[in-house]
């Protein structure tokens, strides 16, 4: 299958590109810079120049492919609404381009907070609709096309997609711990984050591309929920720093933009995903990666 992958040179996207190529697929990766293009082509994929603001480029990439894996997102934490609107417009354009062709369209989203005190399941709908909602309501926008000749599938990634070289949420928590001289958690730290190893996430995406039905919601979750105080303690132990609680009213000042995410209680089941795809996470756990030095910081 010839697959158009946005975010192909990113943390998850580069692993997905490797996974697809290893299983006989051809990858055309969206590249917004010479550096990204070179990284994509070094893997044996084809670079397609453009970015998620360039709707014509996105449409051309989607039109030329047998399927689309949309992983790119504009992570502009200074302008959430602008990023959400960009996402909505990008997804809309690609969906309109492939509508009626029965091609797969896989879209990245995230695991939200649990529902009524229970883990989020694949049966739970996203509460976000419209361009001004979280991630532009793009998950629901895509799934609306499941009855319009698109094999639309939602890929819900755990808060931590970890591994050696991770520069995401947990890496930022490690940086903050070093800056503050202590590894913090919010209030009593009983809220939980799900996690998945990068290799497991990439394999789930490839399996979803190959066999997930239209309208499926899938959970790229290896560990359903780790207490944030345990994450903080593991980072503190590795970095040689004390672990401390941070009052909720002080969280924004202590953690910055990541406070709104680190304070969420997000537990997610992966049972339906495993059953549907025959997928079993086998990679290292988050705590194993922390202990192995995935979040070591330069002196």
UniProtKB/TrEMBL annotation:
<dbReference type="GO" id="GO:0005737">
    <property type="term" value="C:cytoplasm"/>
</dbReference>
<dbReference type="InterPro" id="IPR051783">
    <property type="entry name" value="NAD(P)-dependent_oxidoreduct"/>
</dbReference>
<protein>
    <submittedName>
        <fullName>Nucleoside-diphosphate-sugar epimerase</fullName>
    </submittedName>
</protein>
<dbReference type="GO" id="GO:0004029">
    <property type="term" value="F:aldehyde dehydrogenase (NAD+) activity"/>
</dbReference>
<dbReference type="InterPro" id="IPR001509">
    <property type="entry name" value="Epimerase_deHydtase"/>
</dbReference>
<feature type="domain" description="NAD-dependent epimerase/dehydratase">
    <location>
        <begin position="3"/>
        <end position="214"/>
    </location>
</feature>
<dbReference type="InterPro" id="IPR036291">
    <property type="entry name" value="NAD(P)-bd_dom_sf"/>
</dbReference>
<dbReference type="Pfam" id="PF01370">
    <property type="entry name" value="Epimerase"/>
</dbReference>
